[in-house]
Design goal:
alpha/beta; 12 strands; 7-stranded mixed beta sheet; about 40% helix; about 350 residues; binds pyridoxal-5'-phosphate
């Protein structure tokens, strides 16, 4: 981020943006068919831009909702008065592909299908590749929020039949917060040019067309965050796709194993876990208190995150970031120490 604070309308900055867009597309193996569109904003900005820009007037969007981020997509569509066909499921359950196929066949007004790849609420992985085959077979547009999987899990945008893929600068690509990323199939994107504009600022085609014409973003770019993302992308390719994923999985397994040894139970069956995040069932032990544990760990340099589902109390741990084996071991040692200090021993889940 410590780079010269140049005007984002300078030629020099255009080169930075153009290179960055090419590299961000390359992360998901996108070839010449794909365009990368950037917005200043958090991940939700691109969820908003994509949903409001891509659903044709008078048509519907089917949204798979099995967590807080699926719910957010439903809320965004509702805010624009876009008709939603909600495929709602419990937080531990991926969609049934036959059911998805059946629902799409039964309603030709559904123009788009949207799904979260890695539901960060729980750590659940949704079957994007398998769903993509169905969505394209039935000639619908496929929107995938890969915000917390992009640059960790290997993704192949073309093979997986994703038309619009969303990510952000601050998760597994390991940059700083402030840029939303869309990687779009150009042909599908061009089709949206004449849809009615539902948002003045968050319009996908407008952002794309302006960038094509001028090499700039239509509104002020977060210059320093762009530099940080360019550096993060460089580091991604230096590490390599396979090594990045192996590091995340290695960290995740260490963390998972350590938690099991301490007596914790997880929300999901292990075969549904993403390998990026763990939703841990909150112990029912009388001495356990999430906020107390949080504060003790915070003092030792770690942040743990509360859960986001109402039916089961959980807290969440993720291996997103420039983290290594030593970090996992240090965290587990700190967790053990905090539990000892709180007097938590024996069965963490009495009467369960
Ligand atoms: C983080 C995240 C988002 C975006 O959240 P912001 O707070 O707007 O950055 C969207 N979808 C998923 C799956 C996420 O993990």
């Amino acid at each position: 981020m410590v780079a010269s604070d140049i005007c984002p309308r300078e030629k020099e900055f255009q080169t930075v943006l153009e290179t960055l867009c090419r590299e961000l597309t390359r992360v998901v193996h996108g070839g010449n068919r794909y365009e990368c569109i950037l917005f200043a904003g958090s991940g939700t900005a691109v969820m908003d831009a994509c949903i409001n820009s891509v659903v044709p007037p008078g048509k519907k969007i089917l949204i798979v909702n099995n967590g807080a981020y699926g719910q957010r997509m439903v809320n965004i569509a509702a805010a624009y008065g876009i008709e939603v066909v909600e495929y709602a499921l419990p937080g531990d359950t991926p969609p049934d592909l036959h059911e998805l196929d059946r629902r799409l066949q039964g309603d030709s007004d559904i123009a788009c299908v949207a799904m979260i790849h890695h539901e960060t609420t729980t750590g659940l992985l949704n079957p994007v590749k398998e769903a993509g085959a169905i969505v394209h077979k039935l000639d619908r547009v496929f929107i995938v929020d890969a915000i917390s999987s992009y640059a960790a899990l290997p993704i192949s945008i073309e093979d997986w039949k994703i038309d619009f893929l969303l990510s952000t600068s601050n998760k597994c690509i390991q940059g700083m917060a402030g840029i939303g990323i869309v990687i779009a199939d150009r042909e599908k994107l061009e089709k949206t040019a004449f849809y009615p504009k539902r948002s003045y600022y968050l319009n996908l085609h407008q952002q794309y067309a302006y960038f094509k014409k001028s090499g700039q973003l239509p509104f002020t770019a977060p210059v320093q965050v762009v530099y940080a993302l360019a550096q993060a992308t460089k580091e991604y390719f230096e590490e390599g796709e396979a090594n990045r994923w192996a590091r995340y999985q290695g960290n995740w397994k260490l963390l998972y194993q350590g938690l099991i040894e301490l007596g914790y139970r997880m929300l999901l069956p292990v075969e549904r876990e993403s390998g990026v995040l763990i939703a841990v069932r909150e112990p029912t032990h009388p001495k356990f208190d999430f906020n107390d544990l949080h504060d003790r760990l915070y003092e030792m340099g770690f942040t743990i995150y509360p859960g986001k589902i109402e039916t089961n109390r959980t807290f969440r741990l993720a291996v997103i970031g420039d983290l290594y084996v030593e970090d996992m071991n240090q965290f587990l040692a700190s967790l053990r120490r905090a539990m000892e200090a709180m007097g938590i021993q024996g069965n963490l889940y009495p009467e369960q």
